[in-house]
Amino acid sequence: MINCVLCGVGGQGTVLASRILAAAAMKKGEFVQTAETIGMAQRGGCVVSHVRIGEDAVASLVPLGSADVIIAFEPSEAVRALPYLKQDGIVVTSDRAIQPVTVSLSGESYEGEEMLSYLKEKVAHCYVIDTERIIEECGSIKPLNVALVGAVAKSGAIGISVDEVEEILKDKVKPAFLEMNKKALMIGGEAL
Question: CATH classification of 2-191 is 3.40.920.10, yes or no?
Answer without folding.
Answer: yes
